[in-house]
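Sample log: Aminotransferase.
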Amino acid sequence: MSFFANVELVPGDPILGLTEAYNADTRATRVNLGVGIYYDEDGRIPVLGAVQQVERQLAEASKPRGYLPIDGMPDYTRATRDLLFGADSALVAEGRAATTQTIGGSGALRVGAELLKKTLPSARIAISDPSWENHRAVFGAVGFEVVDYTYFDAAAHGLDFDGMLADLRRLEAGTVVLLHACCHNPTGADLTPAQWERVIALLHERNLFPFIDMAYQGFDQGIAEDALAIRLLAASPIRNFVVASSYSKSFSLYGERVGALTVVSDTADESKRVQSQIKRLVRANYSSPSTHGAALVAGVLNDPGLRAQWEDELGRMRTRIHALRAGLVERLAAHGAPQYDFIQRQAGMFSYSGLSRAQVERLREEFGIYAVGTGRICVAALSAKNLDYVAQAVAAVS
Ligand code: PLP
């Protein structure tokens, strides 16, 4: 008799299933727009030059591989705080921000969720409708009741800001509100600076708890610009908030699992107590984070020359995404589909294209173009080579 005899099979992840189907497709023209990864013009995940340099230094030094502290490499967490809040942040100087190195942005969400479940046991969490699918799973897994707030206006292909404010206003005081700092996944619809100010004023007024997820810092406007929500929160009267951040995209280090959880407390003393709780959660989970990815990021961020090189490389990825958006819109119009001009107004790697499930199906069957059933496409998986082909196919099914 097996102890596992009655274990049920969980259906596979639909996005990973899409990649499997794409890999099995033998058409030379196949394109996978279902991914959440930035590819370069040659269809490869870039290895940034600044990262390569640190990699060479690390190989040369061949350092012993001891354990890191439970909350991670100090050079990494310090540099992360500076990227989030800016180097001259008063809040950081006051000792109110505690940063923990985590297993990617996903790990930051998980540890952050566990901390909040422990400290605010009866709170709910509100996530945008739609949101990155894993948000619901992560917060649900630690026992949170997950509710949605209105976010996207499908007809206008943009943010439904009035709907969002109305829903946030209805939330019970103490509710945790998950907000995407920039490059909203999956819609590509972001808040303007003025809209951020209004949301933050509302969070304060209604006593809601902000949980910021920033997985794409530098992919829309720039490092400081994309962190605006965090900087505005830091300058607001709100005393507590959480940030889950990730270097997966901004350093093109997906598999190295480099992320961070930053918790802002009211005082330095409170921050120490909160951090002690986080260390206990990490210790009982994976004990301590891994060295290599953090050493790469810290090596780049703490060397002025490499840091400048990274900012330049990140800027090139950002500029290329903007150019791909503009190119796609231009090619779509040339193929008789001018209605997609909104793609240029959306931000980051993704676009909610407005394509229906049936249109997505046709793209796959007739053209070998793979997109998520919701119509989400990864703009960063396009290139000069396939842009016209994709535009022609989208126009044909529209
Ligand atoms: N948050 C959002 C909105 C994301 O899109 C992603 C990755 O796709 C993550 C978090 C997780 O990042 P990581 O791959 O570093 O775990």
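Observation: Residues 36, 104-106, 132, 180, 185, 213, 215, 246, 248, 259 surround pyridoxal-5'-phosphate (CB under 6 Å).
Observation: The mean pLDDT is 97.
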